[in-house]
Fold this sequence. Notes:
By secondary structure, the protein is an all-beta fold. It is built from no helices and 10 strands. Strands 1, 2, 3, 4, 5, 6, 7, 8, 9 and 10 form a 10-stranded antiparallel β-sheet that branches.
Amino acid sequence: xxxxxxxxxxxADSLRKGIDIKGKSGExxxxxxxxxxxxxxxxxxxxxxxxxxxxxxQFLSAYGHNSKLSxxxxxxxxxxxxxxEIGSSGTDTDKLHFEIRFEGKPVDPLQYLPKKK
Length: 117
């Protein structure tokens, strides 16, 4: 997603394990990197419709609050592939919640994403 950042990662705040990116319902959510979809659903409280992609043995990315999922568990995805649509599931506004986990621990996604020009 490419909207304004609504909230940033904070290692000190357990509720801010990633970033929230403003969007409009139905806008595409794309995979940050290729990998395997290890979770797609709404069973984790606080994330709404969620997708988790395992990139390798160290990195996972998570995409929450989607309105529509375009992939299912077990699918292989490519970097830049549409995997969902922005929504407001589990929240009060249309946005994407995006997390990166390194060896199971949340890290600041902005350290891994390309810089905006």
